[in-house]
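Field guide to reading this record: the first block holds the primary sequence, the second block holds the structure written as discrete tokens, and the final block holds curator observations. Each block starts with its own label. This record concerns ABC transporter, catalogued under organism Parazoarcus communis.

BLOCK 1 — SEQUENCE
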Amino acid sequence: MNATMRPLRSGVRVLVLAATVLLGSGCATTASDPQDPLEGYNRAMFSFNEGLDKAVIKPAAQAYDAVLPSPVRTGVSNVFGNLGDPWIGVNNLLQGKFADALSDMMRFLFNSTFGIAGVLDIATEMGFAKHDEDFGQTLGRWGVGDGAYIVLPFFGPRTLRDAAMLPVDMSVDPVSSVGHIPTRNTMTGVRLLNTRANLLGVDKTLEEGTLDKYSYVRDFYLEQRRYKVFDGNPPRVYEDFSRVDGDSLPLGRAADELAAVAVEDLELLGVGDFALNARTDGHFN
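BLOCK 2 — STRUCTURE
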């Protein structure tokens, strides 16, 4: 099998599995949020992913964190971040953000050479900002709607639009495309452990700070995806679903700015069930 097609087919199998579970849940699924019509299924999958994280991923990440010093973990984060910059640049190009696309390519060039294969993030020091784009965001910029909220097994929270594009992102992922299976599996494992290790402590914050962890994760994920699609400047409206006239209520500027700050500092990743992406220069304690 062609190495490039392998992750694409793997991603398709995951989506087919999710669709099968959805059909199985059928009419038993009830929802209290119009953006989450699959809430019954989603809560079950959320619990499954959370159990997997607690039983396997988190303990392994804690061991990883205990063995490797912070500078080494930062270097590992930089390497994987550098590998993702070309695809980020392609998505910026497809969105018509040519300056950002050029910046992404320059980041990859400088960090891959002078940054010792990306271990050092010298591009940021040179003024080339790190961006975060994927094909789901690109479709959002083109006007494709989010669709319903869905929690995928292993990959965590998505919208239907982003879930459908997951195989595309996986097919161009440099790690998933490595042809040598032991090398690919090792890199995938290290990336997972490094990302999860950067998030240690976040789960405790979530447990103590919210009564309904599932709802908090869902609402935050949907809001941060909206901010990403609009590059931090989404239309400032509050959808009042109790209204029947289709109007929206304007959102206060102060609340909008607070949300922007929150999304700048915390970003969701599909690692296990829920993860807040710590910046590459440190991790939560």
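BLOCK 3 — OBSERVATIONS
The longest helix spans residues 39-67.
Residues 33-230 form one domain.
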